[in-house]
Amino acid sequence: MRPYHMLIALTALALGCAAKQPATSAAPRFTLDPKKTTCAEFLALGRDVQPRLIAWADGYSRAGTLRQQDIGVVDVDRQTQALVVACEQAPTESFWDKVRAHMPGGSKHVQPTRMTCEEFADLSESERPEVAYWIDGYNHGVKQDDVGAIDLRRDTATILVACKPTPQESVWKKIAQAF
User: Fold this and answer.
1) Given CA atoms 137, 143, 147, 153 in this order, what sign does their dihedral have?
2) Cβ partners under 8 Å of residue 73, min gap 6
3) For the packed helices 127-143 and 171-178, what is the interaxial angle rounded to 10 degrees?
């Protein structure tokens, strides 16, 4: 075999081996158990996903204190900075404890029990997941089931598709079916 053929073969072998290397653990996880999540895991989610976990935790925690018909307004477009700072100061502590102590408010308020599909569609791309995860958290809290891990990548576009034929229907029902 000629030297340049050997070089090509070795390069191909090296590239093949490199492609089979496992992914690094630095990649963010998007499936977490909210009650077992640490602040460090919460911080690793990224600012676009953090509000989903916060909304889910808020809905879940309110299920024990409010009946569905008594739910008034719910915050969306949450101001997460106070919770982020609290978690940065204590990354090994429980996210669940921190979120209960520092539940961030939001700059917008919605009424999820009265929200129609049309109103849900009118929300911004960042607000829709907060509403969907809040309702999902509440529904899990009512059941008082062992939550386990929740997937923070669920797409709210499926809810929009389910809502399209019936814009005046309750989005609560659609989210309960889709999530």
Assistant:
1) negative
2) 109, 110, 111
3) 70
Cross-strand pairs, 94: 38
How far apart CA 121 and CA 167 sit, in angstroms, is 9
Report which secondary-structure segment, H or E, holds 74. strand 74-78
Lowest mean pLDDT among 23-32, 92-101, 142-151: 23-32
pLDDT averaged over every residue in the chain:
83
Contact 42, 95 (CB under 8 A): yes
Residue type, 117: C
- CA 139/CA 150 separation, integer angstroms: 13
pTM of the model: 0.80
pLDDT for position 27: 44
H helix runs in the chain, sequence order = 3-19, 39-44, 50-63, 81-89, 95-101, 117-122, 127-143, 157-163, 171-178
Query: φ and ψ at 38, to 5 degrees?
Result: -90, 165
93 contacts 123 by C-beta, under 8 angstroms? no
